[in-house]
């Protein structure tokens, strides 16, 4: 359950006693609880005693960016940020309306129309508990190679999860990237959008959370929605009505998903390692 030190901090910060707490699933990285105060305010609290320095602060900044993107997507309000925990407003899950998935796609497309001069972000953050470098680049192929694939490949080789020979192959892959991805403006993306990081609320709107935000190629986001499933055909119809994807996207999905697959390889090992190497070999 919620550590006493975090309980004390919450009660001191809000000047109200905690009435109840209920442990809930917090994902593979963190622990979480639903916390209700005596004044009926309800929060989602997530914590990790071994959190990398700045992890929850970076998540809070990402949530603020998404919340200010001018969409109907429900993004949790950050109430309190600390080194080893994060307090968010509680959002109640609901079943969604008949057209909720379609509207989710539309609103995500609107979010992706938020742009910046360069790919990246003004600060680094995390994907899971792994560091995510967001050093800015004017060219997507460079950003993808240098800030996304290269750090993960090196991490995998150094830990023994990936074979050392993959370092030569991935260099060959980098030379082909410029001719593969269509030219687009940097898009504000959630960065870790799979079925476990969204839900439909009681209002019927989609809520998104647990981001790894940056300005990137929007095909990265849309490819990841297909990595583990959980997004309906209506979702993609709604998206393409507002911001159609370029032709050939289906052929680029696997390459886009190399990044999250490498992240999973470094976090969990197993078959993700061979899957990552197979993708690199197919382009190298």
Automatic annotation (TrEMBL):
Lineage: superkingdom: Bacteria
Coiled-coil intervals, chain numbering: none
One Gene Ontology molecular-function label: kinase activity
Alphabetized InterPro entries for the sequence: Fructo-/Ketosamine-3-kinase (IPR016477), Kinase-like_dom_sf (IPR011009)
Keyword Kinase found: yes
Any Pfam family: Fructosamin_kin
Keywords: Kinase, Transferase
Family: Belongs to the fructosamine kinase family.
Protein name in the entry: Fructosamine-3-kinase
